[in-house]
Design a protein that fits this description.
Elements: E1 24-29, H1 33-37, H2 44-51, E2 54-59, E3 65-71, H3 74-109
Antiparallel strand pairs: 1-3, 2-3
C-alpha cells in the first residue's frame, strides 16, 4: 500500500480511501511541465476534472524528470496516464520541431564563423 497523498483538497470524484491506496506513477521531462499543466500548474484542476483523477507532481532530485502520481479508480488512472504521456510526447515533438526550424533559419542566414 502506498502512502496517502499530502493534499487536503481531494476532489469529490476520488473515493477515499480506496482510490488513494495504489497510485499510478510515471515520469515526465521537467521542461515539458509548463506546456502541459500551464504556468504554476494552473491547468491541473481542469485536467483532474476531465480525467476524474487526482494528480500530484514530485520533482526528482538531481534529475530533469518529474514524477507524476495519479490517484483514482483503475480505469481513470490508466486513461489519465495515457492522456498525459500523449500530451508530453506532443509537446516534446513540438519543441524539437521548433529547434529544427531555428537551426534551419540560422543556417539560411549563413552566419560567418565569427558569429557561431
Amino acid at each position: 500500500m502506498g502512502t496517502l497523498p499530502e493534499r487536503k483538497d481531494i476532489p469529490p470524484w476520488v473515493k477515499v480511501p480506496e482510490d488513494l491506496k495504489d497510485p499510478l506513477v510515471f515520469q515526465v521531462q521537467t521542461r515539458l511541465l509548463g506546456a502541459m499543466f500551464g504556468p504554476d500548474g494552473s491547468r491541473i484542476p481542469y485536467i483532474e476534472q476531465v480525467s476524474k483523477a487526482m494528480l500530484q507532481l514530485k520533482a526528482l532530485e538531481s534529475s530533469d524528470l518529474t514524477e507524476v502520481v495519479v490517484y483514482g479508480s483503475y480505469l481513470y488512472k490508466l486513461r489519465t496516464k495515457w492522456m498525459l504521456q500523449s500530451m508530453a510526447e506532443w509537446h516534446r515533438q513540438r519543441q524539437e520541431r521548433g529547434m529544427l526550424k531555428l537551426e534551419e533559419a540560422m543556417s539560411t542566414l549563413q552566419l560567418g564563423p565569427w558569429m557561431k
